[in-house]
Amino acid sequence: MKIFFVILFFAFPALSQQFEDAEKFACSKDAKPKVREYFEQLEKETKFINECEAKWRKESLEKTGNPPVIIAGGCEWTNNGCPRNLVKPLYPEIAEKYGIFGTVTVEIVIDETGNVIYSKAFSEKTIFYYNAEKAACASRFSPKRYCDKIVKQRTVILYHFIF
User: Fold this and answer.
1) Three-state DSSP class for 137?
2) Angle at which helices 32-40 and 42-64 cross, to 10°
3) Which DSSP letter does residue 152 get?
4) Alpha-carbon dihedral sign for residues 44, 20, 150, 135
5) C-alpha distances out from residue 105 to 26, 85, 92, Å
6) Confidence class for position 20, pLDDT limits 50, 70, 90
7) Predicted structure pTM score
């Protein structure tokens, strides 16, 4: 029996910094311009998000006298950037045959409509890369909104391939 565990990180963790070949990991030919644009404007968009969050925290503190309560990911209380359809990857036949298991980290970029436009897998188990990237590209999310602006989001999915 194959078991999959999927973990999402809704933050901006330290992700791969080599964006020269970012288009290579675009989910489709149509997504390539969006991926290029995202990585070209990454610094500007990250600054906007940080400023928006700082403003929100300040306003919350002024209104209530307390810092805002933040629930990891926010999916428990809002649908802002949460998964709508998280696709499970196929377990490769060769891995199943030889009892290979492991975890794959997939860096993804989600566009303003909730479609994954970029997925890049990395870990020590390359046998799972293709299926993990393909599943990530097929997944869908709700749009992420900051300060009344819908933005692209960058996050990580961990796929645990356990046999």
Assistant:
1) helix
2) 60
3) -
4) negative
5) 16, 18, 16
6) low
7) 0.77
